[in-house]
Specification:
This protein is of the alpha/beta class. The protein is built from 5 helices and 5 strands, in the order βαβαβααβαβ. It has one domain: Hypothetical Protein Ychn, Chain: A (3-Layer(aba) Sandwich), CATH 3.40.1260.10. It starts with a strand and ends with a strand. It comes from Alteromonas salexigens.
Length: 129
């Protein structure tokens, strides 16, 4: 079976890219492929924003990605620079800045682009949404 890295750059507010990425990942798992990482970059980092509360009749991408991780243990990784630019902060970053709240929800973790590219070498395929 093949190994995949998934790159999510689309915002959950403006396109179906994130929902399509999640559906694609779920199908990969059903087909017994391996997902090395789901990397959220550019506006894709908003999928990791715990403070996002869509109306009750709309999907909540944060909850959906967390549920996917809980079912598959797939690493959900956010670009630390892209996240900071968009106000998505880890607990450590919020404390360093003197904020009382943070909004990067575990199991999302942060890393830099260099780590993304290093892990990408283990994958057979890169698919971007």
């Amino acid at each position: 079976m093949a190994r995949y890295s998934i790159l999510v750059t689309s915002s959950p507010f403006t396109s179906n890219g994130g929902a399509n990425a999640l559906a694609y990942c779920q199908q990969l798992v059903r087909d017994n492929h391996t997902i090395d990482q789901v990397f959220f970059y550019q506006d894709g980092v908003f999928h990791a924003n715990a403070f996002m509360h869509p109306p009750s009749d709309e999907p909540n991408s944060v909850k959906q990605w967390v549920a996917f991780h809980e079912q598959t243990n797939t690493p959900l990784v956010v670009c630390i620079t892209a996240a900071a630019r968009r106000g998505v902060l880890s607990q450590q970053e919020a404390e360093e800045l003197g904020y009382n709240a943070y909004n990067l929800l575990p199991p999302f973790s942060q890393t830099g682009l260099s780590d993304f590219f290093t892990k990408l070498h283990d994958s057979d395929n890169l698919v971007q949404f």
